[in-house]
Amino acid sequence: xxxxxxxxxxxxxxxxxxxxxxxxxxxxxxxxxxxxxxxxxxxxxxxxxxxxxxxxxxxxxxxxxxxxxxxxxxxxxxxxxxxxxxxxxxxxxxxxxxxxxxxxxxxxxxxxxxxxxxxxxxxxxxxxxxxxxxxxxxxxxxxxxxxxxxxxxxxxxxxxxxxxxxxxxxxxxxxxxxxxxxxxxxxxxxxxxxxxxxxxxxxxxx
Length: 206
Description:
The protein is α+β, with helices and mostly antiparallel strands. The chain is 46% helix and 28% strand. Strands 1, 2, 3, 4, 5, 6, 7 and 8 form an 8-stranded mixed β-sheet that branches.
């Protein structure tokens, strides 16, 4: 894991102690560690449409120019709704928000900012994102987050959502207030760990 902040150092210390602890004593150690480092967060994972083809066609520096320009315009909307950019992974963003309503409103702000950034630009300078949103207890470090809902958000955003589409895990969808719930439509069942998971799609804001 990357980073050298106090939470990351604390996790490394916990993992070293865990390695030296007998299996029957590890659950108690885990509970103490998670009590310090874990909290409920909404995780948004984005993916950039057609990244591989664009990088091959236009060159990686051209793509990174467009991506960096867009990210500068996206950050204010993310921050406005209580979110932060945890990290950038190639053409994807991992974002953390305090709760799913904030995450959905943050995504709305990102989509609005992307439309503004794309307006009037050549096609090969326009970007489109897809989004996955999960919510639950996650291990939060300075430069990373870990947990089941992080993995699910990544799966939805990277592999299932189409450009401009926002998909939510059940845990994220069930916490939304009525105005946002009215924008949900069933996406379908998605297999995860051998079990079906009902996924919801958030319709674009009117």
